[in-house]
C-alpha cells in the first residue's frame, strides 16, 4: 500500500508527485526573449514509495529530471524519473528497499547487490551527453531529448571510483570537464580522485589523493591552473552506520581543510591548507581564480552545521545562527601558506545556492545570483501561510563593489535556484536573463519565471505557467541550442512512458 501519511516531510510542495508529464506549448504570460533558445534541466527529488525508515531526509528521495525547452517564445515541458537500479527494483517490488541516507546496513536484503544511486542532485550536459548526478554514485546517463535513462555510466570503464561529484566543472575556455570523487573507494574511505576530461567527454586522467578527514565534499572549484578541494565538518563512522543513522553528523571540532592541486599536477603536488572549524562548511562556491601565487575563491560559508537533518556529533542542539552563510573571499597564498578571509557582504545571509555567468568560471568576475529568505519583501501570509525559512528572493550580488539588488516572483511565491542565461554568446558578463522555478503557495502551482538580469529589481518579465506543482528542485542547468542542438518538437516526440 502506498501511504505517505506517516511521512511528515511529504507535505505541500514536498509531497511526492509520482507522475511524469509532457506539456506541449506551455502557457506563457509576458514575452519570452529570443535569447532563450535552449534547454533548462532541473534535478528534483520525488519519492516513488514512502521511506523505509522514520524521519528519512529529502536528499534520499528518488531523482527526477524536468526539461523546459525554449525557442521563439514557446516552451515545451517534460518530466521523467531517472531509472536508477534502485528506482527499478523498488518499482518492481512496489515498496522502498533502501533505508537511511547512504547507509547500506539499513537496506532490505533485496537491495544488497544494487547501486544506491538516487541521481537526484544535478543535471549536467557535457559533450552532448546529459548526466543526472549524485555525489555518492557514478552519474546516470540520459538521452538529452527524451530523458530516457540509458545507464549508470563509468566513462567506458575508466572511472575507477565508486562515487562522482554532483558538481563537475566545465572550463569555458577549453571545454574540458573536471570532476572529483570522495569516499572514492567506498564508504568511509579517505580516498579522493580528481578526474580530467577532454572537451569530447573522454576521461583521460585521474589523480588519486588522500584526504586529511573523511567528510562530505559537496562542491569544488577550478581555476585556469588549479583544482580546489574543500572538506567539511560533516563526518561519518562505521559505528554511526551500524547504529542505523544516516551517513553524516557534524563535528564542530573538525578544522576546515582545502586541498589545492595544480591542474597539470600529480598526487605529490597537492597542498592542504588547514583552517579553523568555522571554515569547514563550504557547500557551494561561486567562483575561483589564480592570480600569481594566490588562489582566490568567493563562496557562501556557514560557521557551523548547515543542516538540522544531520545532527551534531557531540549531541549539542542545532545552532540556527551558526547555519547562516556569509559570502567570504578566501585567498590562499601558495608562497607563504597563508589562508586569509574577507567578508564580502556583511549582514547578508544568503543560502548556499550561488550561481553566476558560467562563461566566467575560472576568471575574474563581478556578478553572482543567490536564493534567500528576505522578510523585508512583501509577503501575503493570509493567502500563502507563514514565510518561515522558505526562500522568497533572488539577489544579484556585485562582487566588485559589495552591493546587491533583489527581486521576488510575487507575495505568494517561493523561489528555487536561479539560473543565468547570457543574452548572446558574446554578451558581456551578467548581460542576460535569470530563470528559475517559483512555487505559488496560494494556488499550489509552479511557474518558471524570467528576470532581465540587467533590470533585476523589476522582477519577472515573463512566466511559464504550469497547471500543477512541480517536484522540489535541487539544482538546474542551462544549455543553449548552439551547444545542444534540437529540432523543436520533433527530436523528442512523445516516446511513451519508460516502463522497466
Ligand atoms: Fe549542490
TrEMBL record:
**Molecular function GO labels:** carotenoid dioxygenase activity; metal ion binding
One Gene Ontology term from the biological process aspect of the record: carotene catabolic process
Keywords on record: Dioxygenase, Iron, Metal-binding, Oxidoreductase
**From the record, what ranges are coiled-coil?**
none
One Pfam family in the UniProt entry: RPE65
Positions of Fe cation binding: 167, 218, 284, 475
Does the UniProt entry include the keyword Transit peptide?
no
InterPro entries from the UniProt entry: Carotenoid_Oase
Which domain of life does this protein belong to? Bacteria
Which cofactor names does the annotation list?
Fe(2+)
Can you quote the record's cofactor note?
Binds 1 Fe(2+) ion per subunit.
Enzyme Commission no: 1.13.11.-
Report if keyword Coiled coil is assigned.
Answer: no
Question: In which family does this protein belong, per the annotation?
Answer: Belongs to the carotenoid oxygenase family.
Which protein, by its recorded name, is this? Dioxygenase
Naturally occurring in which organism (per UniProt): Alteraurantiacibacter buctensis
Amino acid at each position: 500500500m502506498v501511504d505517505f501519511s506517516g511521512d511528515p516531510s511529504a507535505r505541500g510542495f514536498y509531497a511526492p508527485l509520482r507522475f511524469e508529464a509532457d506539456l506541449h506549448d506551455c502557457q506563457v504570460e509576458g514575452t519570452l526573449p529570443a535569447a532563450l533558445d535552449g534547454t533548462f534541466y532541473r534535478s528534483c527529488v520525488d519519492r516513488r514509495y514512502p521511506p523505509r525508515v522514520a524521519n528519512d531526509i529529502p536528499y534520499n528521495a528518488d531523482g527526477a529530471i524536468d526539461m523546459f525547452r525554449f525557442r521563439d517564445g514557446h516552451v515545451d515541458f517534460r518530466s521523467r524519473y531517472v531509472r536508477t537500479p534502485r528506482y527499478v527494483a523498488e518499482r518492481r517490488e512496489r515498496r522502498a528497499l533502501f533505508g537511511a541516507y547512504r547507509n547500506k546496513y539499513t537496506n532490505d536484503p533485496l537491495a544488497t547487490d544494487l547501486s544506491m544511486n538516487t541521481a537526484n542532485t544535478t543535471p549536467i550536459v557535457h559533450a552532448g551527453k546529459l548526466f543526472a548526478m549524485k555525489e555518492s554514485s557514478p552519474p546516470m546517463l540520459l538521452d538529452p531529448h527524451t530523458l530516457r535513462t540509458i545507464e549508470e555510466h563509468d566513462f567506458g570503464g575508466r572511472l575507477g571510483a565508486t562515487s562522482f561529484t554532483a558538481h563537475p566543472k566545465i572550463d569555458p575556455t577549453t571545454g574540458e570537464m573536471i570532476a572529483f570523487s570522495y569516499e572514492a573507494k567506498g564508504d568511509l574511505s579517505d580516498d579522493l580522485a580528481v578526474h580530467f576530461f577532454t572537451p569530447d567527454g573522454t576521461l583521460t586522467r585521474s589523480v588519486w589523493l588522500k584526504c586529511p578527514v573523511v567528510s562530505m565534499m559537496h562542491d569544488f572549484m577550478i581555476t585556469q591552473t588549479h583544482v580546489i578541494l574543500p572538506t567539511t565538518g560533516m563526518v561519518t563512522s562505521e559505528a554511526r552506520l551500524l547504529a542505523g543513522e544516516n551517513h553524516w553528523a557534524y563535528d564542530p571540532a573538525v578544522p576546515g581543510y582545502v586541498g589545492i592541486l595544480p591542474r597539470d599536477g600529480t598526487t605529490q603536488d597537492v597542498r592542504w591548507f588547514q583552517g579553523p572549524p568555522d571554515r569547514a562548511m563550504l557547500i557551494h562556491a561561486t567562483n575561483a581564480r589564480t592570480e600569481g601565487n594566490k588562489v582566490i575563491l568567493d563562496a557562501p560559508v556557514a560557521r557551523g552545521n548547515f543542516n538540522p537533518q544531520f545532527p551534531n556529533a557531540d549531541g549539542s542542539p542545532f545552532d540556527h545562527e551558526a547555519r547562516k552563510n556569509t559570502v567570504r573571499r578566501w585567498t590562499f597564498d601558495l608562497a607563504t601558506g597563508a589562508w586569509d578571509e574577507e567578508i564580502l557582504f556583511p549582514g547578508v545571509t544568503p543560502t548556499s545556492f550561488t550561481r553566476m555567468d558560467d562563461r566566467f568560471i575560472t576568471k575574474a568576475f563581478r556578478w553572482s545570483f543567490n536564493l534567500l529568505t528576505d522578510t523585508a519583501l512583501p509577503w501575503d501570509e493570509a493567502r500563502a501561510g507563514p514565510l518561515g525559512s522558505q526562500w522568497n528572493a533572488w539577489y544579484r550580488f556585485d562582487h566588485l563593489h559589495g552591493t546587491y539588488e533583489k527581486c521576488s516572483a510575487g507575495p505568494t511565491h517561493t523561489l528555487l535556484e536561479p539560473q543565468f542565461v547570457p543574452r548572446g554568446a558574446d554578451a558581456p558578463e551578467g548581460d542576460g536573463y535569470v530563470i528559475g522555478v517559483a512555487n505559488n503557495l496560494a494556488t499550489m502551482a509552479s511557474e518558471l519565471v524570467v528576470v532581465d538580469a540587467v533590470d533585476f529589481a523589476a522582477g519577472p518579465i515573463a512566466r511559464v505557467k504550469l497547471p500543477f506543482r512541480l517536484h522540489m528542485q535541487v539544482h538546474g542547468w542551462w544549455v543553449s541550442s548552439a551547444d545542444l542542438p534540437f529540432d523543436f518538437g520533433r527530436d523528442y516526440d512523445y516516446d511513451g512512458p519508460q516502463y522497466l
